[in-house]
Specification:
Shape: rod-shaped
Strand order of the largest sheet: 1-2
Order of helices and strands: HEEHHH
Radius of gyration: 34 Å
């Protein structure tokens, strides 16, 4: 049985036999060269992943004379709260719906009169804005 050997750089090109599992030397991969240099293409992001990345992206907000970075989602909710305090009806409806869905209800029932309920809601919203550290545009 004949021992297999691959020709080295010192072997003349005529001594090399091309055949099964013996590609021509000029077509072989060079040492350190990949057979797939660009690699597998990256998959496109799903819509859910793209939305999640956009909501996590940092934006800068200015409040109380300071600039701070918050997520886009936090900035959106702060904007809704500020607009609700300013009296925008659509923002007030949205904020009420969000509060009913996500905030725990208190054991104390709401005051009987509408004026009292609005005052209580306004106080809660103002407290949320103070905690966020961002003031409405007219208070800057």
């Amino acid at each position: 049985m004949r021992k297999r050997s691959s020709p080295g750089p010192s072997d003349p090109p005529g001594n090399y036999e091309v055949g099964y599992r013996k590609p021509p030397q000029h077509t072989r991969f060079k040492p350190g060269q990949s057979g797939n240099p660009r690699g597998r293409p990256k998959a496109e992001k799903s819509l859910a992943a793209a939305l999640n990345d956009a909501l996590k992206a940092k934006v800068k907000l200015r409040g109380n004379g300071k600039e701070r970075g918050v997520s886009s989602l936090d900035a959106y909710f702060i904007r809704v709260v500020v607009d609700a305090i300013q009296g925008k009806a659509s923002a007030q409806r949205l904020l009420l719906a969000l509060m009913e869905r996500f905030l725990p209800t208190t054991a104390d029932p709401a005051p009987a009169g509408n004026a009292d309920a609005v005052a209580v809601l306004r106080e809660e919203i103002e407290l949320m804005v103070k905690r966020s550290g961002v003031l409405p545009p007219d208070e800057k």
